[in-house]
Design goal:
- The protein is an all-alpha fold and 111 residues long.
- Helices cover 48% and strands 0% of the residues.
- The chain contains one helix and no strands.
- 0% of the residues are buried.
Length: 111
């Protein structure tokens, strides 16, 4: 019966994981030896708690609130003007449709 041979894989921690069942044959696959230098992994430094990058003074807070209120007003004005443009266009198309319908009905009555 054929039994697959699983090679021993070196882990990133340089520990070697053993096989589940050791093979008894002499033709077992050995891990390849590493012949070049590896730099040791850097030790992570302890994280430093940093203060927030931006600190708002009362004057800065007022400026931010005023700017955001202005932005809301500008965006609202743009949206309302777009809605008004759509409403005016729809009304003008409706008037054109009524005029055309009356002209076409007037032609049919004259015949």
């Amino acid at each position: 019966m054929l039994r697959p041979r699983i090679p021993v894989n070196p882990l990133p921690t340089s520990l070697v994981a053993p096989l589940d069942r050791p093979t008894t044959t002499t033709s077992a696959i050995e891990p390849a030896a590493c012949h070049h230098d590896h730099a040791p992994a850097p030790v992570p430094a302890t994280p430093h708690v940093q203060a927030p990058a931006v600190r708002l003074t009362p004057a800065g807070l007022v400026t931010v609130v005023a700017g955001s209120a202005g932005l809301v007003l500008v965006v609202g004005t743009v949206l309302v003007s777009m809605l008004l443009a759509v409403a005016v266009s729809a009304a003008s198309i409706a008037v054109c449709a009524v005029v055309l319908r009356s002209l076409l009905n007037g032609q049919h009555k004259r015949r």
